[in-house]
Design brief:
Layout lengths: L4 E6 L3 H11 L5 E7 L2 H11 L3 E5 L7 H8 L5 E5 L2 H9 L5 E3 L4 H14 L5 H7 L8 E6 L2 E6 L3 E7 L2 E6 L2 E6 L2 H5 L7 E5 L2 E4 L3 E6 L5 E5 L4 E4 L1 H10 L1
Parallel strand pairs: 1-2, 1-3, 3-4, 4-5
Antiparallel strand pairs: 6-7, 8-9, 8-12, 9-10, 11-12, 13-14, 14-15
Amino acid sequence: MNKQLQILIVDDEELARRLTREYLRKHSDINILGECENGLEAVQAITEHNPDLIFLDIQMPKLSGLEVLELTGRNSGVIFTTAYDQYALKAFDMHAVDYLLKPFSQQRFDEALDKARRMLGQVAPELQNLLALPVTKLERLLIRDRGQVHIIPVNKIDYIEAQDDYINIHSGGKAILKTQSLSDLEAQLDTSKFVRIHRSYIIQLEALKNIERANKDNYIAVLHNGTQLPISRSGYERLKAKI
């Protein structure tokens, strides 16, 4: 490649960022766009600069590296750098761009950089698969809206409503839209705490006040905040099994 690679370094440890800069000095085709020390800064920098390559830590304050990729939609030009090998095993299994387990040598770093050079410009479906593989059940939802990042703890959600290509997340008397299918989110939620009561609704069990009969064959879920939601026949069976 003839052009300079535009690179972003993302790591919450200053020493780790310094080491990455040091390793990059021997490469003449590199331009470092900047550094970020947490996930929120990384989302902003990636959105503004669209770097060719990101050296990305996974465990960071505010947002993890995987959450950064989810919010930015990034699925190529990423090299993970982390001290946690439980993520490394999954990354190697899914053939992600590359994964540097700290501490790593200059030689190992150069190998990862060469691999990234070869892959630039290509969408990496295996990295997308890695992002889709949850490490644990979802603990918070990340939503980008007009340049802002909203972080909603899952345990604060009352219910989620399907609206065309979006889901409407209701929490604490407020509602916010996210581009995602209800079925996709359902697969990530803890089934001991959330139940799908209708093709258009998922509720958190702790938000449920009672179940009322609407007519002979239909029921409604009444939440503590006064919201009333329809319950389908299959949803009623699922709900009965939980309470």
